[in-house]
Specification:
InterPro entries: CheY-like_superfamily (IPR011006), NreC/VraR/RcsB-like_REC (IPR058245), Sig_transdc_resp-reg_C-effctor (IPR016032), Sig_transdc_resp-reg_receiver (IPR001789), Tscrpt_reg_LuxR_C (IPR000792), WalR-like (IPR039420). It comes from Deinococcus cellulosilyticus (strain DSM 18568 / NBRC 106333 / KACC 11606 / 5516J-15). GO terms for molecular function: DNA binding. Keywords: DNA-binding, Phosphoprotein. This is DNA-binding response regulator. The protein has 209 residues and is of the alpha/beta class. It has 2 domains: 135 residues, Response regulator (Rossmann fold, 3-Layer(aba) Sandwich); 60 residues, Arc Repressor Mutant, subunit A. 53% of the residues lie in helices and 14% in strands. It contains 10 helices and 6 strands; from the N terminus they run βαβαβαβαβαβααααα. The chain has a 6-stranded parallel beta sheet, sandwiched between helices. Strand 4, helix 4 and strand 5 form a beta-alpha-beta unit. Helix 2 runs parallel beside helix 3 and helix 8 packs across helix 9. The longest helix has 14 residues. It is elongated and about 65 Å long. The relative contact order is 0.10.
């Protein structure tokens, strides 16, 4: 029997998932929580094998909760279950310690199999999430494509600096930096500063220090 803690801030979603899980006699929902903080509080009493974790929730989101859970209870696996397909959310969940990443549009059969896999310590990714990761790592995004100035700006973005901060440090106008950042994101096929920061870290252009 796989003991499951179900974490989602929507009652209707939890109700629907419990109907899915009732199709499998070897899965038991031992507790529910509406946010990450509540999930962490309930773990000692319900002792789940797998936590089904939504990512975007109030009070404490799923990424932070996953990070804390894996730190406090390393024997419990987390399966992220979300409607978010952005690459930076996939990275964040996996880096926090989630063993799998599934979308809420997954079939009952796929989701049930992913829960059993998580209980066995096996990785499962929704096909669309896996496709995005593969596409990202196969893309010709190379450090050599960046100019020295773009590399420097990318490092500053990874440090959390705003356009205004970067402009002041490089002693140029904020408009100039906005142009560089826009060009940088376009060249790397990225959609946000967060993705740019992750790109910099993964490609050793910047560090967390």
């Amino acid at each position: 029997m796989v003991r499951v803690l179900l974490v989602d801030d929507h009652d209707v979603v939890r109700m629907g998932l419990k109907m899915y899980f009732s199709l499998d006699s070897e899965i038991e929902v031992v507790a529910e929580a509406s946010n990450g903080m509540e999930a962490l509080e309930r773990i000692p009493e319900c002792q789940p094998d797998v936590v089904i974790m939504d990512l975007m929730m109030p009070v404490m989101d799923g990424v932070k909760a996953t990070r804390e859970l894996r730190k406090l209870h390393p024997g419990i696996e987390v399966l992220a279950l979300t409607s978010a397909l952005e690459e930076h959310r996939i990275h964040a969940a996996i880096e926090a310690g989630a063993i799998g990443y599934m979308l809420k549009d997954a079939s009952a059969e796929t989701l049930l199999e992913a829960i059993h896999a998580a209980a066995r310590g096996e990785v499962r990714l929704h096909p669309e999430a896996a496709k995005r990761l593969v596409r990202e790592f196969r893309s010709p995004q190379m450090r050599e494509n960046l100019t020295n100035k773009e590399t420097l700006i990318l490092q500053m973005i990874a440090r959390g600096l705003t356009n205004k901060n970067i402009a002041e440090e490089l002693q140029v106008s904020e408009t100039t930096i906005k142009t560089h950042v826009s060009s940088l994101l376009s060249k790397l096929n990225l959609n946000s500063r967060t993705q740019a920061a992750l790109y910099a870290l993964k490609n050793n252009i910047a560090t967390l220090e």
